[in-house]
Amino acid sequence: MCTYKRLLPILVFVLTFAGCATLRPDFEEPTVTVSSIRALPADSMAPRFEIGLRIVNPNREALELHGLAYRLSLQGYHILTGVAKDLPTIEGYGEGDITLTATADMLSSLRWLANLVSSESEVITYELEAKLDLGGFHPVVRVKRKGQFNLSAAPR
User: Which of 74, 90, 73, 76 is nearest to 141 (CA)?
Assistant: First the structure.
């Protein structure tokens, strides 16, 4: 019994450092930028959007994206919330594009559209929050991007 008491702290110490060895202290978070947001023709009352994301991998090893959760707000109204899987692998020191297609929340969309019509603004602000699941021992990458697009510059 005395031997087990001595071995337990050593075992805990070895397992802790073995676990830490698999973590990557040199891992750099990928850069995620919004490359496009555009409205799609809707086949129902709820608007649909296509969101383009560009992911840059500054690491040597490929990023295998296991999943993505996202939320898009337009002018402060939470319009889209969604998830995506079956995402492409971003090669080491490479970049790739992801296109998300989502149908908007009907109630929030109506409030946003009413605000858009009453304000007659040519500029729409957006905020995208995304969580990238890289799987394994990699940290979850959380991204928050803000920007705007001009309606007068949109193709008609």
Answer: 90
